[in-house]
Design goal:
Helices cover 65% and strands 0% of the residues. The chain is built from nine helices and no strands.
Length: 168
């Protein structure tokens, strides 16, 4: 399918074709299945609301599965798929950061992974490298439950941005 997917196509296309497009927004198959199950959508707002509802109920294993599709902040996503292109666009500002900020992001990523046993996830779109570093530093002090909720929210925001881009 093309990079964009108009709502009428999302509502009527074969489930397998739409599932592939939705997986580029979020790699949690439970999210994809729940979004597909609610078709057709009356409008864009209904689709976005459904996405948000599903996120509130995603199991931890589904969130972890979705995280597997995200590179570390500061690492360039590989591949030519829609999700890799979006990731490179979302994190583009990191390549313009000074060497100190880039180094501190690399070190922070390692510390975060040691502490929480998962990749640090943040909605990078619209944030400067320093803002991402500040959030990483702040979140390193979180307890496990608080951080799990933060990860879910960041993933929801990323998915929503990508879903909006898909519909563009």
């Amino acid at each position: 399918m093309a990079d964009s997917l108009p709502l009428d196509v999302l509502n009527t296309a074969r489930q397998d074709d739409v599932a592939s497009a939705l997986l580029s927004c979020c790699a949690a198959t439970a999210w994809v299945e729940a979004v597909l199950a609610a078709r057709p959508y009356a409008d864009r707002g209904a689709l976005l609301a459904r996405s948000d509802e599903v996120f509130a109920k995603l199991a931890t294993a589904d969130v972890d599965a979705a995280l597997a599709g995200h590179p570390r902040i500061g690492e360039r996503a590989t591949g030519q798929g829609r999700d890799a292109r979006w990731s490179r666009q979302e994190q583009a500002s990191v390549s313009d950061a000074d060497a100190d900020v880039q180094q501190r992001l690399r070190e922070g990523n390692v510390a975060y992974e040691r502490r929480f046993d998962r990749v640090f996830l943040i909605r990078a779109a619209g944030r400067s490298p320093q803002e991402m570093l500040d959030e990483l530093t702040r979140r390193l002090g979180s307890d496990a439950d608080t951080e799990a909720a933060e990860v879910r929210e960041q993933l929801r925001q990323i998915t929503r941005l990508r879903l909006e881009a898909l519909l563009a």
